[in-house]
Amino acid sequence: MKIETRVVHAGGTPDPSTGAIAPPIHLSTTFEHGPATEDLHGYLYVRDKNPTQDRLEEAMAALEDGEDALVFASGMGATIAALQALEAGSHVIFPEDVYVHARVAHREFLPKWGIEASAVDARDLAAVRRALRPNTKLIWMETPSNPRMEITDIAAVSAIAHEAGALALVDNTFASPVLQRPFEHGADLVLHSTTKYCGGHSDTQGGCLVLKTRGALYDKLFHLRMILGAVCSPFNSWLVLRGLRSLACRMQRHSENGLAVARALAEMEQVETVFYPGLPTHRGHGIAARQMSAFGGMLSILVKGGWDEAVGFASRVKLFQNATSLGGVESLIEHRASAEGPGSTSPPNLLRLSVGLEHADDLIADLRQAAER
Ligand SMILES: *Cc1c(COP(=O)(O)O)cnc(C)c1O
Questions:
Q1: Strands across the sheet with 332-335, in order?
Q2: Strand segments (E) across 26-159
Q3: Which of 13, 23, 200, 284 sits a CA distance of 20 to 30 A from 333?
Q4: How many DSSP H helices and E strands does the chain contain?
Q5: 197 lines ligand 1 (CB under 6 A)
Q6: 248-371 has which fold?
């Protein structure tokens, strides 16, 4: 079945007890068991699992074509679980351009857990190969990357990982399962911040790990989630599930608007560079065109000048709103260097745009007036 159909129905069997078409939210934290803790209904306690989370997991696994999925309290909850599943003494390869808190996690926390990490330019396959160590257990990809919109060749990097006996993980947050399905290109694990496009309305937080095969790693991650406690709440699971229903429609519009806005920005004199993988001038365009069905609603620009000129641009928008996060229906703009704070690797003149579902003409008009001083 096509993805447009799957997003509408995944995890959507009518409620067996009432026939409700819209799934119920089960808020109960605890479930009846037998006198010697015999499992009677398949559920015990909300931190293990819950029927509403189950529906979302079924949906996410179906959309990515994975065998199973686990939902977490946030994208970072999923990120940390994936890293904690590694044994002490392992080595992980990260891309240089990666979500800021994933970078903080590997710099600040991995050493404490006895895990080595190195950061490479993941666009350079020779650099990825050179970074391999005998104990490399995981290659982390994020494509398109946050915030520089770099494209990693999922098939090529997954092949390098597999030759080395390591797992290949893709943070698929920017593309969503509608635009990119990393398992088709050889990845083993897919991560989402469902706070972003999957939820889609800037009103829920969650994360997800989808596994291509449901092996021992699933049990390990399930146990980790239960003990670390970063489990997705029933209400947040429900909101993400609700968001998924319109994901295909939204991604189509986000992609149309993203391309229109990127083209318009590329024409503006005040804009030095536009990073949008849908533009033929983008370094990763060819790879993106192979592994994505469209290019999404995220882009970033370098404003001519420096920090002040970029902040000045962001201060003049009227329709775009200055806020962090992304993937909601509304358009947002953000000066990443100030948002990421000390240690940021974002250029001082970079603005990241999350292009929403408004009419592209209105968005472009807003950016044009903001570009004028
Ligand atoms: C936001 C984001 C995350 C972290 O997700 P949270 O839900 O905020 O914890 C991870 N990866 C990418 C690419 C993101 O944009």
A1: 271-275, 298-303, 350-354, 332-335, 321-322
A2: 68-72, 91-95, 116-120, 136-142
A3: 284
A4: 14, 12
A5: no
A6: Aspartate Aminotransferase, domain 1 (3.90.1150)
Low-confidence ranges of the chain (pLDDT < 50): none
pTM equals: 0.98
Q: How far apart, in whole angstroms, are the C-alpha atoms of residue 213 and residue 293?
A: 24
Mapping DSSP to helix (H, G, I), strand (E, B) and coil, where does residue 186 land? coil
Catalytic residue among 55, 196, 253, 336: 196
CA 270 from centre of chain:
30
Which H or E element spans position 211?
strand 207-211
133 SS3 class: coil
Centroid of ligand 1 to alpha carbon of 202 (angstroms): 13
Cβ(239)–Cβ(185) below 8 Å? no
Domain boundaries, the chain: 3-244, 248-371
Three-state SS for 194? coil
Token pair in block for residue 268: 């503006």
Q: How far is CA 150 from CA 94, 194, 275, 276, in A?
A: 13, 21, 8, 9
Third-level CATH fold of 3-244: Aspartate Aminotransferase; domain 2 (3.40.640)
Q: Is 196 noted as a catalytic residue in this protein?
A: yes
Known catalytic residue: 171?
Answer: yes
For the Cβ of 76 lying below 6 angstroms from any atom of ligand 1, the answer is yes
Residue-level pLDDT at 342:
87
